[in-house]
Amino acid sequence: DVRLVEAGGGLAQAGGSLALSCVVSGITFQEYAVGWFRQAPGKEHEGVSWIVNEDGSTNYADSVKRRFTISSDNAKNKVYLQMNSLTPENPAVYYCRATWGRMVAENGGGDRWSYLYWDYWGQGTQVTVSS
Asked: What is the pLDDT of residues 53-82, one digit of tens each?
């Protein structure tokens, strides 16, 4: 079975940092891309960033560019999201999601920023930023 497990959420001050991680099992990690999405209460899922594990290519939402960094460790089947310069926001649950990496790299199969594009996901980790 495919399994994604997020960790690292919590409470941070505005301007501070948090580091999230996502451990993936049940797939050939290097063949997949892993993305981070977040959902605030009553709002739609929002794409934050993704990484294609095969070639390390990344993409970021405009709202997090130059503040968030996504990376992966293929030896550990793990993806990280370093979040710096956090801004006050409503609580949101951050989810990691995975799908076929080649499809993401070639921008095929639909809208990569839609959570529906991604086949597997974890249970999420809560992030809150206080002002």
From this structure: 999 999 999 999 999 999 999 999 999 999
CA 49 to chain centre: 6
The length of the chain is 131
CA angle 83–87–88, rounded 5-degree value: 125
Residue 24 CA to residue 16 CA, distance in Å, equals 27
Name the E strands within the chain.
Answer: 3-7, 10-13, 18-25, 32-39, 46-52, 58-60, 68-73, 78-83, 89-100, 120-121, 125-130
Cross-strand pairs, 99: 33
